[in-house]
Amino acid sequence: MDTKIIFSIVSLLFINFSLIQAQPAVFDITKFGAAPNGKADASKAIADAWKEACAAAGSSKILIPAGTFLAGIVNVTGPCKGAIEVEVQGTVQAPPELAGGDGWFNFNHIDQFTLSGKGTLDGQGEVAWKRVSCLVRDITSLNSKYFYVNVLGCEDFTFEGFKVSTPESSLNTDGIHIGRSKGVTISNAKIGTGDDCISIGDGTENLKITKVACGPGHDISIGSLGKYENEDPVSGITVSDCTLTGTTNGVRIKTWPALFPNTATNIHFQYITMENVSNPIIEPSKVKISDVSFKNIKGTSATALTVQLICSSGIPCEKVELANIDLTYSGPEGPAKSECIDVKLTIVGKIPEGCK
């Protein structure tokens, strides 16, 4: 009986001793200089703890204890000598201005890796979500094979002093195309193309175009709209203090007839000078168009029909204003004239004869 009791006690001690030996070595990042105050960068401490843990024989654990730790980009690499675990008990925050690299925590060439714990990894993305502004300044682009610039899905994008130059004979060379973007500004640009100087696609909101010289080219154009199903509305477009020279059109809103519905609203063309421009103002539409104004537009037209606003009887254009349109034509087709169909129109000051 005594022999069996002694054997049982020895066996129990042996099992407990084995369990103790199997516990991983712990590398607490605070022992490597990390401070749980949310201010000092702990990325070096994490990397140093990883380096030692990775080099240690047997299994290892890197512990991020309770507290708040600030950490920039962390890049760690294996292979390691044994299994390795990162246990997060506290909160690790990325700096609000974190930049560079392909990720925040990067674990490369690792085998037998575990990420555990009840802590939190906080990327603090709010600042990045709001800060999406971009700037293109004083750049010249020449002889593109297709569109020069596509601005798609952007916010707060500014072009200042941007120049585009390509022959009038080049096809499909829109200078700047904007779609599904908000808060784009184009100013002091000089654009010469074989297509639209600026084309504005669906989903564009709060666009400001000012002091742009367009020509050669087609025009400054919204659309075409209504070609595709589920297009987003266009709103908040202002084109002002621009000059168009020798273009095939002036300023226009163009749509695909009898296809898919869309809306275009709060659109304003003002203080624009045209020199020998064909079809200076055009608005043919089966898209719902409202709150549109053409104000203080002057210059010379290469065609007798200087203003053409053609909407549909089923979807008339509403709240459209023509104000102080001084466009002259001196060709054989008689004086400058205008045409307005299915438009709820307000006229202020002088406009070419025709629209009422």
TrEMBL record:
Keywords from the UniProt entry: Cell wall, Cell wall biogenesis/degradation, Glycosidase, Hydrolase, Secreted, Signal
Gene Ontology biological-process annotations: carbohydrate metabolic process; cell wall organization
Origin superkingdom: Eukaryota
Signal peptide bounds: 1-22
Gene3D superfamilies: Single-stranded right-handed beta-helix, Pectin lyase-like
Predominant subcellular localization, coarse grouping: secreted
InterPro entries for this protein: Glyco_hydro_28, PbH1, Pectin_lyas_fold, Pectin_lyase_fold/virulence
MF-aspect GO terms: polygalacturonase activity
Compartments (UniProt record): Secreted, Cell wall
Matching Pfam families: Glyco_hydro_28
Family according to the record: Belongs to the glycosyl hydrolase 28 family.
Full protein name: Uncharacterized protein
